[in-house]
Amino acid sequence: MESVYWVYGSLVEKPNLELGQRLVCEGVDYQCLVKLNGSIEYGQEGMFTGFEIDLTDKLAGDDCLEVIVFPAPDSGDYSTAHSEVNACVKPPVSYGWNCHPWLISSGLWKNAYLEIRPESHITDVQLDYWLEETLEIAHIDLAIELNRRCEGSIQWVLTDPFGEVAEARSNQSAMRA
User: What is the span of the domain harbouring residue 171?
Assistant: First the structure.
C-alpha cells in the first residue's frame, strides 16, 4: 500500500458569505497536493504538518475539492531488505525484526474541514506561566496572534476550579498581526 496515491475528495457548495472561508487541514503526512476543480491550489511536503488555504474567491458554485496524498518516495533500489526507503526523509516504522519490510505511513493524520471565519481572526494563542517558590502566586503571560491588523477588543477571563472569576483583562485598541 505504500506505493498508492490516496485521493480525499468532496463536492463543495459555495456558501453565501461576505467573510473569509478557509480550508483547514490539521495534518497531512507526508506529501500532498490540494486541487480545486482540477487546478492545483497548494502543495506541501513534511511529516505531520498542517496548513490553511484561502479559497473564498476561488469557489464558483458546486466545486470539487481534492486532497491528493502521494506515496512515500521510493528509490527503486531493492539491493537490500531496507534500501527501498533511502529516498524518503521520513523514518520507516520497524518492529525490530528483519523478516518483514519496513512500513512508511502516510495520509491525513488529523481533520480536514472547511471553516467560516471572520475576516479578522485569532491564528495562535500562547499561554505561559511560572510559579513563585511559595507556590502561592502564579505569573501568567498570554500572547495572541491575529491574521492581520484590526480594530477591536480581546477579553480573557481566568476562572478557578469552581467557576469563580480569578482575573479578567481586556484590550480595546488597534491590534497588530
Answer: 122-175
